[in-house]
Specification:
Blueprint lengths: L2 E6 L2 E8 L2 E5 L1 E5 L12 E4 L6 E2 L31 E2 L4 E4 L10 E4 L2 H4 L3 H14 L5 E3 L9 H6 L4 E3 L1 H8 L2 E3 L4 E3 L2 H20 L3 H9 L3 H12 L1 H5 L9 E2 L9 H12 L8 E6 L10 H10 L7 E7 L3 E4 L11 E2 L8 H17 L4 E4 L6 H6 L3 E2 L9 H15 L6 H17 L11 E3 L6 E3 L4 E6 L4 E4 L1 H8 L5 E4 L7 E3 L3 E4 L8 E6 L2 E7 L4 H6 L4 E4 L2 E2 L1
Parallel strand pairs: 4-5, 4-11, 5-6, 8-9, 9-10, 14-18, 15-16, 15-19, 19-20, 25-28
Antiparallel strand pairs: 1-2, 2-3, 7-8, 12-13, 16-17, 21-22, 22-23, 23-24, 25-27, 26-30, 28-29, 29-31
């Protein structure tokens, strides 16, 4: 079992101790022997004569007990299903065909992978079905098929180890494999391309950019795009390891619309979001700069709302890829992180998605008036939603449009300001429920909001309960706030009887809420007593299964 240091979805970076050696994953076994000369900076080598880091038999007919891997990887395709069921090597390595994985194994080798490679859908089902059955911390080795342009996708699907066999074969045939397509070349260059891609993959996992790398690499082969789409349909297994907070990323393909983090936001709008009690729904277009409130576009919109009763307004930004982003959620990941090409042309699936998300908000609210301050390119919204058009063919930031919007708002809501504290409390209630789920709004019971947006503090009678942290896009809890949510049984992690200080490690976790995702607030308890609170490093399900690694970074503790 490895210690994971970085994760995004099923892709992970970690450390594996085997044969008294620490190996970083993902990694590549470079073939070594009379015909193969691995690069000097390769980290793993594999041979049939024992001259390398790992040894494998030359044939499954000639299995040697001292080998690290059982049998050979070129297993006869017509052998009886389930015939092979052996565990080889001291580190418990199992080759998997159709038999059930042995729970004692640490590394599973997907048998006959080159044959599966001929049917990408079968390869996908083999990898994902195996990933469903084994622990996240167990390793998968996919022999014989990797090349620079598909290694990122295989890593994204949960594969940890590869080899240079396919690249060596292509090199002998005079084909140089790059991260795009093959060209005339040599095997020496193929090995270098593999290593370069491996290092890029590791960095992309560490920086939470593996999905973007996969989308870039997959464009060269249709079957890779097919597998991305299949993966997006398997939202549950891929979303568990995707953090709820992160860095900027680009949305450049249609597949980007179905990234797990984007889909999760859209699902929460439908399942968790409760809009504040407002009379007027005001629709705005998105802006290039994020978060929206810092953009010139939305500062211009505020010129129209500054002198009226803005406490009666519910502002919602319409955008792709998220559909509809209420103003109070504009800091929540990934609303302030995504970047998308702006062409003012909308695909039909984007139009449908925006209207579905907006309709979900409208159905939950009790709006007396809907005002649409959108550009001409978004007329499809007005075609479906009854409301007042305040742009009237002008650009939304033009003087004409802003002046008309201001006049219309004065007419609809007036100039006398409403209850500002109540306005802020409702916004934070909505945010808290969106973040923590049902019961999250209890954090705001009897609270007072202090501070200047976006650095709002949630204050109780005597103590601070939490703070909206714009860098995280989340409410960070204090022990006082955690006590309130503990009563709602939100994000609980049961530990052994010890008082944690800096971190909670997986070995000390007895039980955890399976809904916890990386970077979500986790409440650390022992037999009902709150011991600490802080962001999760791994999912709740992973905490229960892992034997190594940091599970929670504590912010506050007893």
């Amino acid at each position: 079992m490895i210690e994971i240091t970085d994760r995004w979805g099923l892709a992970k970076r970690g450390k594996w101790n085997i044969k008294n050696k620490e190996i970083e994953t993902p990694n590549i076994f470079f073939l070594q022997g009379d015909l193969f000369d691995p690069p000097e900076d390769s980290e793993l080598t594999l041979s049939v004569d024992g001259s390398s880091d790992f040894k494998t038999p030359s044939s499954f007919f000639n299995f040697e007990e001292e080998s690290d891997f059982p049998s050979a990887f070129a297993y006869p395709g017509d052998m009886i299903d389930g015939l092979v069921d052996e565990i080889g090597g001291d580190e418990k390595i199992q080759i998997i065909f159709d038999q059930a994985p042995d729970p004692d194994a640490e590394l599973y080798v997907i048998g006959n992978a080159p044959e599966l490679y001929k049917r990408s859908d079968r390869l996908y089902e083999k990898i994902i079905s195996l990933r469903r059955k084994i622990d996240y911390h167990k390793l998968l080795y996919l022999p014989g098929i990797v090349q620079p342009n598909n290694m990122a996708l295989m890593t994204y699907l949960g594969v940890d180890l590869f080899d240079s066999a396919y690249s060596e074969t292509m090199g002998v045939e005079g084909v140089e494999l790059s991260d795009w397509i093959g060209f005339p070349g040599t095997s020496e260059n193929n090995s270098r391309h593999l290593l370069d891609e491996l290092r890029l993959i590791r960095k992309s996992i560490q920086n939470h950019r593996i999905r973007e790398l996969v989308e870039v690499r997959s464009r060269v082969e249709p079957w890779q795009v097919e597998l991305i789409r299949k993966a997006d349909e398997d939202f549950k297994i891929f979303s568990k390891g995707v953090p709820v907070s992160g860095d900027d990323f680009s949305v450049t393909t249609r597949e980007s619309l179905n990234r797990p983090d984007i889909v999760r936001f859209k699902r929460r709008i439908k399942d968790r979001y409760s809009p504040p009690d407002r009379d007027v729904l005001l629709l705005f277009p998105c802006s290039a700069r994020k978060p929206y409130f810092q953009s010139r576009t939305h500062r211009r919109f505020r010129e129209a709302t500054r002198e009226i009763d803005w406490t009666s307004l519910q502002e919602v930004t319409l955008t792709s890829p998220l559909g509809a982003v209420p103003r109070e959620l504009e800091l929540f990941y990934p609303a302030q992180q995504y970047d998308i090409p702006v062409t003012h042309r909308w695909f039909e699936e984007e139009k449908k998605m925006i209207l579905e998300q907006l309709q979900s908000i409208i159905e939950k609210g009790d709006y007396q008036t809907i005002i649409s301050h959108l550009p001409e390119s978004m007329s499809f919204v007005s075609d479906e939603i009854d409301g007042i058009d305040t742009s009237r063919g002008y650009h939304p930031t033009s003087d004409e449009a802003i002046e008309y919007l201001a006049d219309k708002l004065k007419e609809v809501v007036g100039k006398e300001r409403g209850d500002v504290q109540g306005f802020l409390q409702q916004n934070l209630e909505s945010f808290s429920k969106f973040q923590f789920g049902r019961g999250g709004e209890r954090l705001l019971d009897g609270a007072i909001i202090k501070g200047k947006y976006p650095w709002y503090k949630i204050m109780g009678d005597d103590d601070q309960r939490g703070m909206l942290v714009p860098q995280r896009g989340l409410i960070s809890l204090t022990l006082e706030g955690a006590e309130l949510l503990k009563k709602e049984e939100i994000a609980l992690v049961e530990i052994d009887d010890f008082v944690p200080k800096g971190s909670v490690f997986a070995v000390g976790v007895k039980d955890a809420d399976k809904s916890i995702r990386p970077e979500e607030e986790a409440l650390v308890i022992h037999e009902g007593e709150l011991r600490g609170v802080g962001p999760a490093v791994m999912s709740g399900e992973e905490m229960m299964r892992a034997e190594k690694g940091e599970a929670i970074r504590l912010r506050h503790h007893l």
